[in-house]
Amino acid sequence: MELTRPTQLRNHLRGFLIYAAGDTAAALLLHQFSWLRLLGMALVGGILYSTEVPAYFRWLDRQQPAAEATTRVKRWQRAALSLLYFNPLWIARHYAFLGLFGGAAEPLSLALLPVAGRSFLLNAPVSLAANYYIQNRVTAQRRFMVSALFSGVMAVSYALAAVWL
């Protein structure tokens, strides 16, 4: 399923707003709010994430269409493939963006990898359940928005984990 221009525009706008809101909530909780971070994460969500996440979901639909995921095993496979996309390297990249826009002295460091790995493992059960729902119950047109909302919630979790872990 190719995205129409209005759908792409909606995804960009939703990514801009949802990712910015999730990260802003995390930054406020950690007393790390900055306008640069807000704008940077809004741009990452509205340009990068809103482009690559729907593209991955379209690839996933081509590999294993939701309509054909009639068995429990196939539905869990769709969820697992989605979870694998949001892997420790994806999380480390997200942390690097947080550091870059949050003014960290070394936003790109290999030290992000163990933290991202622990974050991934700690959040895997919740993420797998959420991805099961997103991939098997949400329509293709709304999948990015629901995933972005979940990611906004997880942004709070990842931001807190970066400090706690």
UniProtKB/TrEMBL annotation:
Membrane-spanning ranges: 12-33, 39-59, 80-105, 111-134, 146-164
Keywords, sorted A to Z: Membrane, Transmembrane, Transmembrane helix
Highest taxon above the source species: Bacteria
Protein name per Swiss-Prot or TrEMBL: GtrA family protein
Species assigned in the record: Hymenobacter guriensis
Lineage: Bacteria, Pseudomonadati, Bacteroidota, Cytophagia, Cytophagales
